[in-house]
Amino acid sequence: MLALFxxxxxxxxxxxxxASIDSLQLYIGEQAHVRxxxxxxxxxxxxxxxxxxxxxMDGIEIVGEVKADTQYLNKDKxxxxxxxxxxxxxxxxxxxxxxxEVLVDSQSYASNPLALKVFTFEIDTVNVxxxxxxxxxxxxxxxxxxxxxxxxxxxLIIGLCFLIPYLLGxxxxxxxxxxxxTIAPKLPPHQVALQEMNRIKEEKGWQKEDVxxxxxxxxxxxxxxxxxxxxxxxMEMTSDEIIDKLNEQPDKEWIAELRNLxxxxxxxxxxxxxxxxxxxxxxxxxxxxxxxxxxxxxTAPATPEVQEIVVKEGRSKQAKILLISGIILLCAxxxxxxxxAVVEAVHLFx
Length: 350
Prior knowledge:
By secondary structure, the protein is an alpha+beta fold. It folds into 3 domains: 10-121, Immunoglobulin-like (Sandwich); 144-176 and 314-349; 189-294, no CATH class. It has helices at residues 2-12, 144-172, 189-203, 211-230, 239-246, 255-271, 277-294, 317-349; strands at residues 16-21, 25-27, 31-41, 46-47, 55-57, 60-73, 78-88, 93-97, 101-104, 107-110, 114-119, 177-183, 305-311. A 5-stranded antiparallel β-sheet has the order 1-3-7-6-5, with no helix packed on it. A 3-stranded mixed β-sheet has the order 2-11-8, with no helix packed on it. The radius of gyration is 53 Å and the shape is elongated. The model is unreliable at 1-13 (pLDDT under 50).
């Protein structure tokens, strides 16, 4: 018999039932929360107490019930089931709540009992005029957060009312545009070169101790002129290559002076040679003289002409599809915004 008692005790100790209440005293109509905790083996069949008529006992009603929550403990061998009831009472009394009973594998287990004291309000029977009737329904003030969706919808509708007609106008407006363009004739190479020589002469770079810059501008202007006049790429050629190319021309009387100019330029740029002032003036005169001797006069008038050019801004088929798709999307957005504004207005004011 003693051995049997020892074997049964550990098995029964695996199931515990505990009940608690968060308030022992209430006024009529106030609420309290009853918490029921059951710990039992995971493989056991647990049946919690139920109250079909929402009456915990005579005088105490159940006004709310939270679904049972299960936690697994001890490597999932033990489970803890917790359930809460919200109770209230409308009768003044001291209530003794009997233990809660649960079934685990058809065996009953009971919790500890609870107690609850319910008080009533004291009514001033002397000053009866101090008792007021039930107040009517009060209007709740409208907040900015409630108005914000309607306000955004209205502003969006106003913006779309301007944007959609503009895009429709852009879709229909596909006409060519007439523009007047002034076309100035291209100056002949010798005139461009002589203008550059006059600029170099007026700046007098050799007098500012910028001799290298002076000869660079002078030879670059000649290279551009020769490229336009004789048709070879003088800008990418060395001084000797340019002289060899000019020797192919029938008139060679000006080549000697030009060779001296390029040699002087190479000495200044690569050997840091400092020529005399009269040498600088002479090289500028020789460059101008070379241009004048080799120029080709153009008898065509150099007056600007004004022409009327038609520029067509026709849109592609893809651009039209994208534009009309955007218009349809904006129309749908406008309808949605209008619906939202109407729904919010009805909800707030009616």
